[in-house]
Amino acid sequence: MSRVVILGAGVAGHTAASFMRRWLTARDEVAVVSPNALYNWIPSNIWVGVGLMTPADVTFPLAPLYERHRIVFKQARALELHPEGRVGDPAPFVVIESTRPDSQGAHEDLRYDFLINATGPKLNFGATPGLGPEGHSLSVCTETHAAETARRLNELVERMTRGERARFLVGTGHGACTCEGAAFEYVVNLEFELRRRGVRDRADIWWLSNEYELGDFGMGGLHLQQGGFVTPSKIFTESLFAERGIHWITRAHVRQVDPHMAHYETLDGAERTFAFDFAMLLPPFSGVGLKAFDQQGADITTRVFQPNGFMKADADYTPRPFADWSPKDWPRTYQSPAFPNLFSAGIAFAPPHAISQPRQTPKGSPIAPAPPRTGMPSATIGKAVARSIVDMIGGAPTPTHEASMAKMGAACVASGGADMWTGTAASITVFPIVPDFERYPEYGRDLGGTFGEIGLAGHWIKMLLHHAFLYKAQLKPGWHLIPE
Amino acid sequence: MTAPDTTPVEDQRAYAPVPTALTKRLRTFVPWQLVRFAVINLRMLRLLWRGHHQ
Q1: At CB < 8 Å, which residues of chain A contact B?
Q2: Does residue A113 contact residue A90 with C-beta atoms inside 8 Å?
Q3: Which residues of chain A make contact with B34, given a CB cutoff of 8 A?
Q4: pLDDT tens-digit map of B1-45
Q5: What CATH number labels A3-123+285-393?
Q6: Nearest C-alpha of chain B: how many angstroms from A456?
Q7: How far, in Å, CA of A79 to CA of A97, rounded?
């Protein structure tokens, strides 16, 4: 009998747990550790954030689902990894702390044969003073954040219907943020909602991000074949914003958020302020702060994790100038180089380098979008890691499956307004996610596999994905046939 | 907070391409979008297939 412990029940962790349970025998145990009682389909949080959905539409309880499918569920957060066990007992274990209301704070040592770190990120609002729901801006990173954002939006729209004008600021709350795509979806949905509610003419909507150019999305942008031209995504995104009357500020690092005022610095060294009535600014991510210890209890966190808290995988982390990075540096199996029974998946693995060129302001502030690794890549990585572990339990000496982001494409459907007949979404695909200039010398990506298009069909696909992925996550009949 | 807003307002729209009326109409024209729905889904499935066969 083997026990596989999965830390995290997000897209990567839940996918890994689901497939692992399907592929392992009944004698083997699959245990999921998550501090949250609910599964959250995060891509639909933007619709909660504009009031079109409720948190109940994008979540479901994990415990009854896991009980039905013979997956052990521990509602707890992971604190410490002990990959060598203790002196006299070399069985590896992880220390977890309960987050259940009836046992809050209780610690438990959970042994494992294999462990997947799929904790996702820590939402690092603390990196920018005043950023976040406990400060002076809003977020859509969790369903509760998004519900609060919708409530504040409703209050403001109420005032606008009485004649007030309002300034909206949407984007990234720090120069090292990732997930620009989520903020992009929020700003275009916000614009659509304000139009639908009849107050668009009283709204000034601004985008502020750490991207060098619009449409960078932390991937260095992408190139699309359109109308006889190969055009950068900057053109695609500028067109969308111009059409909808959204102003934009790029190359910006938010230094501080005060009540109704954001202070930011741009790449050219300018320091500016922006007065707002409503600000939805995403935080930068870091690892969740797991520590690792050896058999004697000595701290070996730096052997297992990068300084930013993300877990080291089978990547090449040798520091090099940005221009010298190679797609081969990216991890393929996500196995820890320190411990062969330790894996990471989704946002929790440490990327070896940025995809979008990192820059600094004259004062040294980062204008450095971090690489995205959410959604489709997260699920694909979770499934590949699960397959490798199942094969290793069966006797394979090394991981058998790979899921390099340098060999994987991604599809993204970014909602541009949710209505069955007048809504739109930008359907975008890229191949590969990490540009490969050796294979595709001109643009780093295959133009045949990279496209973008705005239209109602995209909205239909977005709705289809919402329902299909929630169906899949609830492990309903045939769930495993739905692709990642 | 007493700091004034110092963000300059520029006419960014003047330098960006904007869609024609026909392009905008096609974006929500149901028969055309049904075709695009099929095409986009096929392209995405092809992408998935490629990812699994690299």
Answers
A1: 206, 235, 238-239, 241-243, 245, 247-249, 258-261, 263, 272-275, 380, 407-411, 421-422, 424, 427, 429, 431, 449, 451, 453-458, 460-461, 483-484
A2: no
A3: 457
A4: 446 788 888 888 889 999 999 999 999 999 999 999 999 999 888
A5: 3.50.50.100
A6: 5
A7: 7
